[in-house]
Amino acid sequence: MSFLLFLKFMPKKFKIFKPKEIIKILLLNNFKLRRTKGSHQIFVNNDNSKRVTVPMHNGKDLFPATLVSIIRQSGLSEKLFK
Fold first, then answer.
1. In this structure, what are the phi and psi dihedrals at residue 74, rounded to the nearest 5 degrees?
2. Cα gap 61→11, rounded to integer Å
3. In a domain, 12, yes or no
């Protein structure tokens, strides 16, 4: 099953997050702000070399597909995002 097809039928198991909430979770899990490019902030975890990009679009809610991408990039447990 392709990733896009998975996202289309993905169950609504995650709550709606603002980018600032995601950043709090990342900072509590040893991620540090590496740089900012436009409206995107790039966080890096030096322990495991994971890199996560968080879009900061005027405080808008993140789309569920973006949240899935952030979880996959970070390697963190889904339980942190419920």
1. -80, -25
2. 18
3. no
